[in-house]
Amino acid sequence: MHPSRAKAVESLLEAYRSGYFPMGDNRTRGPIKWLNPDPRAIIPLDTAHIPRRVMDRVRSGKFLVTTDQAFVEVMRACAAPRPPPGEQHSWIDERIIEAYAALHEAGHAHSIEAWLGDGPSRTLVGGLYGVHIGAAFFAESKFHHAAKGGTDASKVCLAHLFLHLQRRGFELLDVQFWNPHLEQFGVIEIPQPQYLARLTSAIAKSVPWQPFDGSAKHAAID
């Protein structure tokens, strides 16, 4: 890795270890904002809830679910404008994509992808990505392409993320901000000092990302 990219990776990791994360602006290319919200939204992995409808979709096997096979493609899909009335402008600009691509290259950022079909002709219809340090995962963004048959694809990826983090022994799933969509999965808000204590404990541990099981056979949690 080029020294400048390696330096950028270490700067990003240090920010996450301190509770901060960046947000850009693909409209103005203004200064990168560094946020450390109080309260902080997390999904406790011991109480995370996967709605039955989503579990039924996971078990159906409609989507082929993989990890780290299309990281940059997932980021670019997350950065694309949402159909109205969704957000038309994203905080994921080219600077953010380049920085997280370097994190991914260094093994500190991962994607989960949902595909329709298999082999060279498969179509990416949903996904999510985030940052991994120790036993903590910081979920950044997700997407789905309903027009391509990807209805519920991002929810299926989120379900696989929960199951994967639980199996691997992760302790912290940070989702940054509360929103109504995440409420169905058990999101809570905690004060910043409590978050930082959980963060310090989680990043002190070593938990590998792999292996990853993208099949439906393990999906037995309601």
CATH superfamily: Leucyl/phenylalanyl-tRNA-protein transferase, C-terminal domain
In percent terms, what proportion of residues is strand? 15-25%
Query: Main sheet?
Result: 7 strands, mixed
User: Mind telling me the CATH class?
Assistant: Alpha Beta
Q: Within the CATH hierarchy, at the fold level, what is the topology?
A: Aminopeptidase
Q: Helical segment tally?
A: 7
Mean pLDDT: 91
Into how many domains do the coordinates divide?
Answer: 1
The gyration radius over C-alpha positions equals: 17 Å
The general outline is globular
Write the element-wise H/E pattern from the N-terminal end onward.
HEEEHEHHEEEHEHEH
The CATH architecture would be 3-Layer(aba) Sandwich
Query: Low-confidence parts, pLDDT < 50 over ≥5 residues?
Result: none
- CA distance, first residue to last residue: 42 Å
The helix fraction, in percent, is 25-40%
Main sheet: strand order = 4-5-6-7-8-3-9
